[in-house]
Amino acid sequence: MTLKHLLWLDFLLGFTTGIIGLIYFNSLETLLGIPARIIIIVGLITLLYAVVAILLAIQNSPHQGVVNVLVTANWVWSFVSLFLVNLYFSNAAVLGKVFLVLQVVVVGALAYFEGRALRHGRSEEQM
Fold this sequence. Notes:
80% helix
């Protein structure tokens, strides 16, 4: 997968998570067993990541320094998500537990593969 594909994926996942969280936070609080304020914070942060990812994805040649900032931010968010797992896992509903774990895994995977593509200079060629 190319860096551009990964950036588009980062955008789609972040945008979807963010919009759903911001629109349906009250219903999601009940469904996930996670406080609405946490759902709103996660929604805002993932939406911010999505904006950065789409701005990079639409460029012919994404600026490597900015991509590196996104990769670093994804790693940071992955570790913050581990902290959220620690705080909310025991009281979360089954779907909430799945969501918390997926945040860590998906964001960590995006950070890893985007970073790998960046290190190997593979913004356009296949990995």
